[in-house]
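Hey L., structure's done. Input below.
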Amino acid sequence: MTTSRGPGPKHLPSSPFKPKVEPVVEVFEVDDRVTHDLHGLGRVVAVDNHAVTVDFGAQVLRVAHPYPKLHHL
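Output:
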């Protein structure tokens, strides 16, 4: 005999067992203006499946997915 389970238990806001929140994956396109916590302002010059290449003026860096410290402007 099989039983049907609902969506799962509800967790109180103060519960240490609350489900983990999935991070939002940002989508970047060529010519997007971005900022990086360490390197400052830049512009996306290339996008591939696993990284974006950003021109920060003094240097061009490849930032890998999930793009830590990189944000849209």
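The mean pLDDT is 85. DSSP finds no helices and five strands in the chain.

-- N.
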